[in-house]
Amino acid sequence: MQDLFLKILESIGEDPAREGLQKTPERAAKALQFLTSGADEDLTTIVNGALFESVSREMVIVKDIEIYSLCEHHMLPFFGRCHIGYIPDGKVLGVSKLARISDMFSRRLQIQEKLTHEIATAVFDIAKPLGVGVIIEARHLCMMMRGVQKQNSSMVSSSMLGSFLSSDRTRSEFLQLVSSRS
Fold first, then answer.
1. Which of the following is catalytic: 2, 41, 74, 117?
2. CA–CA distance, 129 with 111 (Å, rounded to integer)
3. How confident is the model at residue 181 (pLDDT cuts 50, 70, 90)?
4. What confidence score (pLDDT) does residue 180 get?
């Protein structure tokens, strides 16, 4: 991959031998490997058995999980916040695992709509809750730095499964709690 980054630098007219660029191919390769490392991760390994017995059937929400991903169309970053809610059915998921699941799916070439659905499906499959809701609010550099160049735009996507999809009341409670600032 380093050789490819070297060729990219040369193809855009840069001198890879100049001081500031001498280690750029190595650094860029390491960065790209890290930013796409989620494709090699496994959900079961990420969760690592952190499912705990619980009698609670009240909504659990973790808000404002930072996410960083790369647009699969331009390989430019998009970044924002992920909000995850679920209603347990006998088991709760370790709270840090929601952030780890978000990281796993965001660290790959991705589109926001798919990312939102993948996180929701993963939580639904692993915790077997009554329902799951995921909302992602993100800013896309492919839209801000190039193309239409809209600096203040953001995208909001959601995925609702189980009771979050079938119950207007559950969905409304989730949306209200996510939009409230604490």
1. 74
2. 25
3. confident
4. 85
**Has 142 been annotated as catalytic?**
yes
Residue-wise pLDDT tens digits, 35-72: 999 999 999 999 999 999 999 999 999 999 999 999 99
Q: Are the C-beta atoms of 79 and 138 separated by less than 8 Å?
A: yes
Please pick, among 2, 117, 142, 173, the residue that the annotation labels catalytic.
Answer: 142
Q: What is the DSSP letter of 95?
A: H
Q: What is the pTM of this model?
A: 0.94
The predicted-structure confidence for 71-83, as pLDDT tens digits, reads as follows: 999 999 999 999 9
CA 25 to chain centre: 26
d(CA 110, CA 178) in angstroms, rounded, equals 24
- 140 catalytically annotated: yes
Distance CA(75)–CA(166), nearest Å, equals 36
Q: How would you class 13 by CB atoms within 10 Å of its CB: exposed for 0-12, middle for 13-18, buried for 19 or more?
A: exposed
Catalytic residue among 22, 112, 117, 118: 112
Which domains, from first to last, does the chain contain? 2-35 (no CATH), 46-179 (3.30.1130.10)
Residue of 82, 83, 118, 140 marked catalytic: 140
Which one of the listed residues 71, 82, 83, 118 is annotated catalytic?
A: 71
